[in-house]
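Work Package 4 report. The design task specified in the project plan requires that, given a folded chain encoded as structure tokens, an amino acid be chosen for each position. We show below one input record used in the internal validation round.
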């Protein structure tokens, strides 16, 4: 049978592309080599990490946050197997949900490893030993990414683990070294710190959460230090040796200098992710790649006609919702519509406590681009709802064009920041100004009033500070 589209990979890029293409009347197949649908995000990424982040936050809250509210509980105990069961059930509900959506949209799920034999032909090495060849008008590569490794550091998923191992540790390590102070390292470090581990972070750069607004990065480092994180910034992991009970990690200053030894039970290597294209046969086809990324044009087309690529395997932030937007856009383009992704307005969220959420430009980016900007800030310490919930850590920062008042960036550190950011996202999508936001009525008392106040602060007319 000939398909209109064969998608290789069923992560948020691939499965969303498949559903949108089916909605537009195309005959679609998805090839997936994992046992379940949903890719990294649903199986070993966004979803299980958020299940553990929420559960561990509740544990922490029960231990330290309830007393001051007048809720007296006996010290809570950790039932890690039950917490893992919650995580596994969350993953199962999500991956089964995708399988249901495939059935609903009459999408063929072909289980096995896909290789592009030629434009219009995908060879599948079946998971059940049966091989198949799919004929198709278009092929969409959505094979995602894999854990980036450090030379000479072997991941055994027991004492030296990747993010995947960090989602299934059998017990909280007494001491956990996290290599890399990016989103994944700080999120998974937070999980285990809340569950009782001592967490030491080693980061090559001199700041955490690289790419985020500098003020946000500094605030988060201080906040995490207060929570018990220790940071060795400007250091790199040189090697890891097994010791009787755990590991000895040798770290050395990035600028050169004396090495230090850190003992730990477990080392989490979270130094990023790399695009995954192994086994696709791209070289033989002449599909152009650069540093592992598949090169695409503005319409997600590779240099070989009929072959497209989306998600973590191409340029841009490695985020599930970015992959989803691209999945929708490429399906619409294949249907002759005008699919488009606005890369300037893709939010990113760090699910630490407090959360960090940001969209658009950071102050450093605006400075580098020579754009004149105005800043509006508002701290949650001055917000009534935040005080009522004892969630006063953090602030909202709005960056607007000094001449036009158009909002160019929004940064929120605070409880629920990942939800609040979306009003700034929607505003920016419509090209709104700080004044538009400032004149939008916000319900009282809500954390979101701080967003309005920060927008008012752009014109130096915040009311509550
Ligand atoms: C611990 C962790 C937490 C994360 N948290 C977040 C978060 O909170 N928010 C967020 O936005 N992003 C998060 N991410 C990143 C997010 O998971 C990725 O950006 C997203 O999954 C990318 O989607 P994708 O569709 O491009 O690829 P993937 O989700 O990686 O899916 C690719 C799929 O392709 C399959 N595949 C590969 N090669 C073949 C082949 N030859 N044949 C058949 N199948 C193949 C793979 O098995 C996989 O299922 C997190 C990642 C990790 C690791």
């Amino acid at each position: 049978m000939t398909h209109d589209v064969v998608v290789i990979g069923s992560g948020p890029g691939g499965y969303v592309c498949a559903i949108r293409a089916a909605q537009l009347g195309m005959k679609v197949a998805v090839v997936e080599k994992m046992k379940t649908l949903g890719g990294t995000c649903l199986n070993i990424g966004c979803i299980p990490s958020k299940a553990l982040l929420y559960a561990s936050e509740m544990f922490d809250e029960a231990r330290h946050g309830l007393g001051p509210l007048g809720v007296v509980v006996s010290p809570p105990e950790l039932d890690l197997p039950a917490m893992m069961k919650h995580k596994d059930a969350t993953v199962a509900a999500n991956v089964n949900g995708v399988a249901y959506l495939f059935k609903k949209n009459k999408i063929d799920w072909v289980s096995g490893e896909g290789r592009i034999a030629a434009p219009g032909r995908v060879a599948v090495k079946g998971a059940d030993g049966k091989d198949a060849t799919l004929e198709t008008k278009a092929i969409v590569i959505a094979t995602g990414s894999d854990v980036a490794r450090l030379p000479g550091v072997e991941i055994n998923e027991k004492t030296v683990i990747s993010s995947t191992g960090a989602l299934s540790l059998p017990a909280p390590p007494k001491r956990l070294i996290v290599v890399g102070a990016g989103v994944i390292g700080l999120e998974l470090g937070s999980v285990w710190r809340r569950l009782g581990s001592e967490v030491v972070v080693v980061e090559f750069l001199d700041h955490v959460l690289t790419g985020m607004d500098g003020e946000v990065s500094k605030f988060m480092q201080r906040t995490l230090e207060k929570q018990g994180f220790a940071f060795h910034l400007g250091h790199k992991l040189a090697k890891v040796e097994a010791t009787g009970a755990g590991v000895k990690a040798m770290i050395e200053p990035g600028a050169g200098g004396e090495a230090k030894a850190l003992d730990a039970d477990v080392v989490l290597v979270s130094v990023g992710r790399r695009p995954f294209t192994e086994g696709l046969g791209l070289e033989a086809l002449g599909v152009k790649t650069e540093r592992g990324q598949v090169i695409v044009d503005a319409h997600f087309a590779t240099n070989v006609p009929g072959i497209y690529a989306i998600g973590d395997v191409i340029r841009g932030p490695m985020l599930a919702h970015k992959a989803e937007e691209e999945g929708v856009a490429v399906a619409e383009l294949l249907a002759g519509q005008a699919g488009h992704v606005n890369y300037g307005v893709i939010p990113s969220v760090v699910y630490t406590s407090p959360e960090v959420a940001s969209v658009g430009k950071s102050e450093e980016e605006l400075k580098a681009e020579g754009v004149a900007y105005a800043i509006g800030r508002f701290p949650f310490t001055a917000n009534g709802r935040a005080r009522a919930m004892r969630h006063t850590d953090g602030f909202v920062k709005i960056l607007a064009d000094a001449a036009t008042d158009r909002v160019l960036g929004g940064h929120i550190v605070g409880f629920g920041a990942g939800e609040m950011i979306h009003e700034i996202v929607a505003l920016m999508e419509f090209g709104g100004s700080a004044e538009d936001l400032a004149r939008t009525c916000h319900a009282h008392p809500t954390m979101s009033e701080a967003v309005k106040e920060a927008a008012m602060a752009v014109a130096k007319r915040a009311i509550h500070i």
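The mean pLDDT is 97. Validation will be extended to a larger panel in the next phase.
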